[in-house]
Amino acid sequence: MVILTDEGASSSSSTHRWTYDVFLSFRGEDTRKNFIGYLYEAFCNQGFNTFIDKDLQKGEEISMELLKAIELSMISIVVFSKSFASSTWCLNELVKIFECRNNGQLVLPIFYKVNPSEIRKQDGEFGIALAKHEEKFKDDIEKVERWRKTLTEAANLSGFHYNDSCTEFEFEFIQEVINKISSIKSKHVPLFVAQHLVGIDTQAEAIESLLNMESNDACMVGIYGLGGVGKTTVSKVVYNRIKNLFEGSCFLEDVREMSKINSDKILLQKTLLSKILHHTDLNVYNVSEGTNLIMQKLHGKKVLLILDDVGDLKEVENLLGKYNWFAPGSRVIITTRNKQVLKSLGIDHRRIHKVEELRQCEARELFIKHAFQASKYGEDYSELVEHIICYANGLPLALKIIGSDLCGKKIHEWKSALEKYKNIPHKDIQEILKISYDGLEDFEKEIFLDIACFFKGYNKDDVVNILNSCKLYPDYGIGKLIDKCLITLRNDFLSMHDLVQQMGREIVQQESEELQQRSRIWRYEDAHKLLTGNMGSNKIRSIMLLSPERSEVSLKANVFKRMENLKFLAGNVHFGEALDYLPDELRFLEWRESPLSLSSKCCLPRQLVVLKMSKSNIILENGVQQGFRYENLKMISLNSCESITKLPDLCCPNLEKLNLDDCKKLIEVHESNGFLEKLKVWKLRGCSQLQILPSTLMLKSLEYFDLLDCSRLEKFPDIHPEMNCLSELDLRWSGIRELPSSLLYLTGLQDLHVNDCKLTNFLVGANKSQMQEEEDIPSAKLRLACNSFNNFSGPTGFQSVTFLSLSGCPGIKGGLDSWMQPDYFPVLRYLCLSYTGIDTIPESISRFTTLQLLEIQDCKNLRHIPRLPQSIRIVDAQNCYQLDTQSRSRLLNQFGEIIGILPNTIAQAATFFVVDGYLILPAIEIPEWLKFNHHRSVGNSVSFLVGPKFSNLVVCIAIPSKYTCEFDIFINGEKKSKCFAWGAIGNYDHVWLTYKEVYISNPSEENRIELKVIPRCISKKKKTPRFSVRIYVECICCPQKPNASMDECAFNNGEEDSGRVGIRRRLRRRSHRPTHARRPQKHYLSRFGWLPIRFQLWKRSSKPRRRRITNGFHDQGSSSIPNTFLNDDTNANLYPPSKKTKTC
Fold first, then answer.
1. Which of 532, 603, 610 is nearest to 569 (CA)?
2. pLDDT in tens, 342-354
3. Are the CB atoms for 770 and 796 separated by under 8 Å?
4. Cβ neighbourhood burial of 1101 (10 Å; 0-12, 13-18, 19+)
5. Which of 687, 842, 1060, 1073 is in Cβ range 3.0-4.6 Å of 817 for a Cys bridge?
6. Neighbour tally for 707: CB within 10 Å
7. For residue 475, with 0-12 CB atoms within 10 Å meaning exposed, 13-18 middle and 19 or more buried, which class applies?
8. Residues with Cβ < 8 Å from 837, sequence gap 6 or more?
9. Can you say how many angstroms the Cα of residue 176 is from the centroid of all Cα atoms in its chain?
10. DSSP state of 380
11. 1056 is a catalytic site residue
12. Which is the catalytic residue, given 60, 61, 65, 93?
């Protein structure tokens, strides 16, 4: 594909596929049988696809075929001769040619025995001819003016001149023309990219957007990625698309390889100059001279330059010097495997693009094209195709090589090849990927091989600590490996492409044919053979003994005695006996699932950095060498070790992570462990027998402390004033009865979980005990003000806490106003008080300006909730059945204000941090202000049409007792999201009001929104009901049709039976009020669409049931939700649950 365009045109509008190289325009009677005949023959002999009108020109207007030929030609050559202007055909042809010139076509004039000035001034033969045309076309004088203007433009173009005074022969003149056309065409011949292109357009468009072709500034863009991922391919595609927007362009391939010796460096420089200047006789004698020559010759030209596969900064400097001299509008693209090259060039990170691997569907398409040369293949190959796609993992190089390798092979050959690829990589793939490895320094190679053979999938910080102890400078080295795309980080865990890992492991395999002479062992079969055969040596650096199944291996107690250089050891098998020896050089010891026992003779290695021994039989008192400080030890993970009853003095001053989760027999933690100044994470989750912690904690670096489910731990330690890094404290389901006021020293605390504890006082004074021992004493309340905040000499309140949960603490019954003050919790966002004994929320809550969520589920005594702060977005008051009417009404009205649906209100939710939100509370009907323009349906779904600007959805559902519900949102037939409400789990009806942001991708003028509601019954005895859904929404379903039935707008999934007919008739009567009584339709949905949804429990019968009205409500038997919801004219006030509904 070739692109020709003028400099002002955009690449997107200038893409052409030329049919002809040259279009010849001429006056036939002057030149057809002589000059034009020779010129045409010369073009054909040179291989140029040339269009010539071989028919004699007839009539005034040129044919459509000729117009199309002009459009499809790369170059138009206009031969001006004496009688050219006398032909209207020639003049119309010339106008069309110049129209195409404005769209990127090249025009080359030949002035054959005519002077350009005669054409420019339009005198002589040209003037006479135009005067005749003016007379002939006096009624269309604009046509003649257009001819005159085009002739002037053509005469001003640089072209070829030939007349009788020329000293050269005509055939020599024609050769000059041929040479010029050859030069022009060579500039516009596209680079060959690849036989099959898949998934390239998206990448190319991303790079073109970085180039910002609309800007006249010079800029440099970087492309980087793994070897074989397609950097060269995508850069060639971009080059072909935009190169004709520049005065000169050059694509230099293999810059890294061509920069190894001086002669090749000079050759690169000469190639660059000749491609842009179109001179082949340039002399460059040394690299420095070539660099200066490039800057001198090109600094005034708008150029496109692509340097492909650059290895380091020096290679760019050899070609571009200071690389800051480019003319306005120039573009330079650098492709490399090393992102650091792009950083060193000063390229803005916003102009750096990483080429990613192909998606699975793209990988399959590319592989099939190479393996089968078609889009279809036999089903018996399907499974093998998927295995190979998985093996290649989106790397185009591998897909192409393997596909071509297997093309035409039989299925048994495919199976054999696949097994071979898994164990021995294809040499062509290996060579390409290994280039990046070969460019590493020795210490970087060691890091790479350690990760490829051992640490892939491990936490980066842990690996840094381990490799730091090996003097490998991993902070620097890992960064370089990431820049070179040899490894990646995924959520702080080390990863790499599977084929890159295989490349690294193959390098280790090539070290020796003997296992004991290799540096790293990772295959279970190899490790098993090595250890059971007692074949160790000092060359072994790491061993993985990871069995795919639980197994027991019989090894000698001193099996590692001959491996003094062993640094990393991991396994999961059960040893028959305890180990007597571990090498002192060992840095990493991990044993998973199966217990690993150390004898009393075997102490932990002194250089150990990470110890991970879950479910082991380790006895720490024996394992820790007395009197020795383990300076290197940074992480200990001993979860589920039932042999540990007491955590001794660990003698690890630099310990950062300590995991003792599920050590069910742990009772006591030594006092010294409360002073580990480097400790960041401490996990004691599930230590159900734990009773004693250090009396004081001075853990200056601690960020996370987990005591969840430590059910026998009753007292929390005092906090030292310097302990201010802790951000999360989890005390859920612990036995904690009191929290000391020194907890306020935790000035960095953000999340405090005290759920389901035996807590009765939130904080108590450090030297006072005000806790009431009996949990069941009604007067035991949450107290704090008199002896904690007010009398505490340290910080006032929790200045950083955003999440506070006291849920499930039944001892908390009242007195919230003593501590629930905004000054004490200035940034609180989430407050959870569910399942507590509180009876009121204090008025001060309205001043918590950052509060977004309030959970008060199952607060059975709660009666009063004041107005909440404007920041509130979620309130969950399920089963708070004592809540008074004013509180319920206040909450619903406040949420109406938040989402901007009450009269004279503006939505607040869209401008706040949280977009989605909900309110759920006991209620028996939906308020009147939800009831405007409506839809309804009998069944389990409702749909409606909205305009392109619809963005937010508001749903209100009345949920009967003992039911929950969920609903799916479909947009134009595609499922977008699922919403779930806990619902009315108890014996009380609830109202669930929720609002969500709904994104419509590629919206049209009409978009169908469908809501599918799914009820869930808590009681097994109840049947899941059929229900009616009524929709109130500003839509575009029935604009300007006031008499249309709303049933025409709703999508009905329900099968209508006789039991429903009466209900629907009543609905229809109430819906079809006079036009003036209904709210007018808007053409498009405004900010929110409203969907109040009503469950209706059905009992099948042959005719509609009679309704019995009690206290203003329609009694439908089994449903506790009043049917006044179905009537637009009913009273909208909320009522407390009637005696009939209170069945607890």
1. 610
2. 999 999 999 999 9
3. no
4. exposed
5. 842
6. 25
7. exposed
8. 810, 811, 812, 813, 814, 859, 861
9. 57
10. G
11. no
12. 93
